[in-house]
Amino acid sequence: MEFCFMRAGKWMLAAGTFALLVNVGTAPIARAQAAGQATGQAAAGQAAGGQAAGTKNYKDRDEYELYSKITQTADPKAKLTLLQTWQDKYPQSDFASDRNVLFMVTLNQLAANDPASRQKLIDKSGEVLNADPKNFQANYFITRWGPAVGGASPAPDLVSKVETAAHGVIDGVSTAFDPTKKPANLSDADFQKAKGQTEALAQNALAWAATSKKDNAATESAYKASLQADPGQSNVAAQYGKMLIGEKKYPEGLFEYARAAQYDGPGALPPATRQQLMDYFNKAYKDFHGSDEGKDQMLAQAKTQALPPEGLQITSAADLANKQADALNARINSDPAFKIWYAVKQNVQDKGDAFFNESVKEYELPGDAAPSKTFSGTVVSVDPSKVTLGIEDPTKPDASLEFSQPLPAAALDKIKVGEKVEFSGIAYSYVKDPYMLTFKDPTIPGVQTAAPARKGKGKKR
Fold first, then answer.
1. CB of 403 within 8 A of CB of 449?
2. Can you tell me the distance from the alpha carbon of 144 to that of 166, in angstroms, rounded to the nearest whole number?
3. Which of 1, 197, 239, 310 is 20 to 30 A from 100, comparing alpha carbons?
4. What is the pLDDT of residue 272?
């Protein structure tokens, strides 16, 4: 089953976190506005050459008034038009760098609903970074929107830009989220949560870049770091699980699917999607392991943690079958009586009545010619006229010892559920599935039965 949880590169943050980040790095804009207010009267007639060293001034009153209009315009489309007019009319403005930041923030306001704005935003953010390589906001915008622009088949140049920007976000996140910069109306916990979400967004962008380069090791590392930074990303857990399953890392991949299906806190997937994931997990787990053993423990653990524990192991059904086959072969080679028992079972199940009637029925087993004169089994149930044993598996009955006269009390004292019993006797009937071979009045060494042991029509090995 295939799931599509998110469009390629669409790494979204909670609205509150995003609003907080949009304001990160806006100090230059605020300073530009203050400078404009302080020098607005002089700006109308001041020549460029008359300004003091290091002081920014408007070329004339028209530039100042254009800027003022921009700051008073709320509609981002109208603001973008005014910014373009400002750039066209005053390309050499003292406030060109501040204008680029305004361009960047305005384009970002449009990007969510206007895909055409995203590439422009990336380009403008690149211009900001040319002047200020550590500009956190510019790095953040490229990190956020680059994967959305690039999709599943991005240009190498865009991948490189996103990687550089994502590392810039990771390197700058501690400074951007320094406790001294926390808004007064935001709790410490929410501020730290926003920091984690920002780190996660950068790691998700790195995962996107690594995926485009088919670097699975880097993709896995980025996904892990993302979920460590923000454990509530069910979408990312599902994507990570899909990648791990594709790499045949089944235990870890199943855990991530369990996480995405089980987690119901902030960032959880819609209930219908979670049910799809749970259905897939249930089937995939049983297909891989061969049973539901251990499944509930994994689901419980995945509900409370985003990443699997170190050294997580789930034995595959194939490995389990191989292990069981090895154990069976070892037992056949070391136990002559069991070798006969297993050979009879296989032939009876494969060849049916013809083989049983010709080669097994009314013959004594294991037979005097066998190195071992008795079979050994574990008592599963007992009553005076019948004892059932588990020969191949001590918990599953596959031999029935039936007696024409009830066993005496002394015999019953020696035959206890869970204990080993040896016997030989005449095969009387069988059931193919579930396999059961029935013996009439068999011999149990050391146990006196009420009826004499039956004699077969011959000896059979």
1. yes
2. 9
3. 197
4. 96
Of 2, 3, 11, 14, whose CA–CA distance to 151 is shortest?
11
Q: How confident is the model at residue 29 (pLDDT cuts 50, 70, 90)?
A: very low
Q: How far is the C-alpha of 279 from the C-alpha of 452, rounded, in Å?
A: 58
- CATH topology for the 335-459 domain: OB fold (Dihydrolipoamide Acetyltransferase, E2P) (2.40.50)
> What is the spatial distance between Cα 141 and Cα 139, in angstroms, rounded to a whole number?
6
The Cα–Cα gap between 172 and 134 comes to 8
pTM: 0.69
pLDDT tens per residue, range 436-455: 999 999 999 999 988 777 66
Q: Which residues face 375 on adjacent strands?
A: 423
Single out the residue of 106, 99, 129, 125 nearest to residue 32, CA to CA.
99
Angle, CA of 207, 312 and 231, to the nearest 5°: 45
For residue 403, the SS3 value is: coil
- What distance in Å separates the CA atoms of residue 55 and residue 201, rounded to the nearest whole number? 38
Specify the residue for token string 């203050």. Answer: 34
The architecture (CATH level 2) of 15-304 comes to Alpha Horseshoe (1.25)
**Average pLDDT score over residue span 237-252:** 95
What are 171's two structure tokens? Answer: 């390197």
Per-residue model confidence as pLDDT tens digits over 387-420: 999 999 999 999 999 999 999 999 999 999 999 9
Domain ranges of the chain: 15-304, 335-459
- Both tokens of 449, joined, read 């039965």
CB 139 within 8 A of CB 129: yes
**395 with 380: CB under 8 angstroms?**
yes
Exposure of 257 in the CB half-sphere (CA atoms within 13 A) = 27
How far is 441 from 426, CA to CA, in rounded Å?
8
Q: Are 403 and 388 in contact (CB under 8 A)?
A: no
